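Hi V.,

You were right to ask for the full record rather than a summary. Here it is.
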Amino acid sequence: MEIKDAKFLTCIDTTVHYCSCIPMQNLKTDPVFAALDKIFRRYNKAGFQLKMIKCDRAFIPLTDDMLDNMGVTIGPTVAGDHEPTAEQNNRMLKERVRVALARLPYKVVPKVITECLGR
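Predicted structure:
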């Protein structure tokens, strides 16, 4: 997800409806893998075990690493399609950030504030 040039990795769990949003510098494989690892650690700490991730086709390069290192399989969508739950989650997060930015007394909002609101 991208808001005002700030990039985020967003995740939503359909079982407990827990939403995660992690700011990213870029969307290359290593930072995305590190962000997913951070999210998995939160779930494991809470006693949950992740088995499968439903995602867009952009995550296909991570498939082997996720299965080898974390024991999680990736179920990508078909070509040209998006994961509907994730897209709805992204729209909800963007709307919340827009409302929070509109309430600020600034005319121009720095990227740092946008990243903090996205968390």
